[in-house]
Amino acid sequence: xxxxxxxxxxxxxxxxxxxxxxxxxxxxxxxxxxxxxxxxxxxxxxxxxxxxxxxxxxxxxxxxxxxxxxxxxxxxxxxxxxxxxxxxxxxxxxxxxxxxxxxxxxxxxxxxxxxxxxxxxxxxxxxxxxxxxxxxxxxxxxxxxxxxxxxxxxxxxxxxxxxxxxxxxxxxxxxxxxxxxxxxxxxxxxxxxxxxxxxxxxxxxxxxxxxxxxxxxxxxxxxxxxxxxxxxxxxxxxxxxxxxxxxxxxxxxxxxxxxxxxxxxxx
Length: 267
Prior knowledge:
It is a single chain. By secondary structure, this protein is mainly α. It has one domain (2-244). It has 11 helices and no strands. α4 runs antiparallel to α9 (194-217). The longest helix is centred in the middle third of the chain and has 34 residues, at 156-189. The protein starts with a helix and ends with a helix.
């Protein structure tokens, strides 16, 4: 049974890494240009924004709390503050990149989405790699670490729900990041910074709420996994519906339309 458990965990890791491909494929079937370079730049924006965000968050913690560890209600306040700092640097980085690239207005929205997808793809990708590694260790019968022993003894239902919740979170993360890239692009298209601050607010609330649920109920708690499953699923659905509304169906070329009409028996 340990081999089967390891296979399921490893499979969950592979799905975690590659599941966003289905979302990207859905978008590119519509009138959205796929640009790998922008996705890679999005990953770069995330890495660059991460360092000052972590530094400033640590500085604020030391300034406010000193050597004390935040606890109780103050811990949730500090989590929100950290999420706000990270969101400000990240969405601000997207904004500066799109502005400095001098992308034509007609391509700004699609470029923002691709940039956001790149950010979402890199974020927390290590969790998928960790799951694959843990799965292979279990297949070989290795339960030498506390984490591996915990997975090996976890109830099947809790394990499956945890993996499903993680993958729904992963999918939602990429979808929300793509939508936020579009919102940031609107700040440049319309020349109004309120779109940028809206993106910062959505990013902050999304990241903080996920961390707060895990902190309050525990990451391995069944109720927490169900809440994450429903909550992140709703967020992903809203993000996808908004993007589908903003990105029209792909317009077929005249020759494609003629072929389609012949198949249907039309002149």
